[in-house]
Amino acid sequence: MSVIDPANQYLLQLLREAPSETLWWVDENILTLPTTIKGISAITNRYDLYQQLKQHHWPANFSDFDASHIAESSLSCVLLRLPKEKSLVHFLINQTARLLKPGGELCLIGDKSEGIRGFNKRAATRLGGNLEEKKISGGLWFGKITSNPGKAGEPLDDHNYPQLREVLDSFDTGFQFISKPGVYGWQKIDSGSHFLIEHLPGMLDQPLPLSGKVLDLGCGYGYLSLKAAGPQTHLTCTDNNAAALMCCEANLAARHLSGHVIASNAGDLVSDQYDTILCNPPFHSGFATNTELTERFVAAAARCLKSNGNACFVVNKHIAIEQKASKYFANISVYTENNHFKLIHLRQPKASKTKYLHTSDQ
Ligand SMILES: C[S@@+](CC[C@H](N)C(=O)[O-])C[C@H]1O[C@@H](n2cnc3c(N)ncnc32)[C@H](O)[C@@H]1O
After folding, report:
1. What is the helix (H) or strand (E) element at residue 199, kind and residue range?
2. Atom 6 in ligand 1: residue holding the nearest Cα
3. Does 106 lie in the same domain as 189?
4. Which of 42, 187, 202, 263 sits CB 3.0–4.6 Å from 47 for a disulfide?
């Protein structure tokens, strides 16, 4: 699905005009990619974007925005379309200060409502150079900040972005987990996922922990796995977010749970068959609502579920997932619902086990 987004259009123009030795921080926003542009490399924390970059022959790295492989003061230009999370923006600006040559430029694009003008100012203080600002259209702004290491300010507060840390949740008393900024809802338990765990024994007619092979599709830091799995569970956890995968791995290790944690785009690289699939699917890509993405999670569940297995989804009440699921499952029921969420029980996957929904049309 292509989203015509003026910010992305402007970014594309900047990419075409960028000098060699340019780095593009690629965050969660969708962009129709051009074929690689000479001299520009990319780092992304999203596996689906990494796959797209690779398809278009970009030199790209998939990581939680780790730029340690790039030498200090080696870049002429860095491009960034503002991500949603403030601590991430500050972290990327701090990293940029290390990477730019004196006189090199950081280009920021973002909406006024996303705080672009404040980020422009803070980036100028951090990099020590001049700020040129321009309104692109509507609320969209562009900022070009020059690096002047002699006048560089203190690092911006990034809440120690790269650090994994222990979080104690107050909602589910005593539940402790490892997480970090950059992970979906990193400091909390998702209330939809909590609702699913509460009803899971009834839905499956078996107590927790689950036995057999369990797939946690869109695992985040691993909440569903941590609550549903025990020593007899063979877990596979998958997500497209590099920070989520690191945290999930750390959480499984801390609980001595055995499992594989793999990067995938809506489960596309999961090839095994599972007794149980647990999923709280995303319905946003970057800033846009994306029901096609939710459908790809349902399709992946059908492909990966044993014929007698159970896929348990929790979704917002307004998502018409049942209708989409009827393409992929013969047996679909709403187990229960509350004011916000419904629990969908999917059984008897329909025949084709090799059918993938195309990912190239995002
Ligand atoms: C609603 S969250 C649920 C997270 C976790 N299961 C929980 O209960 O806290 C949805 C998850 O899907 C992941 N996600 C979003 N787009 C994805 C994609 N294309 N492929 C795989 N995972 C994706 C997000 O990173 C996020 O962790």
Report:
1. helix 191-204
2. 219
3. no
4. 263
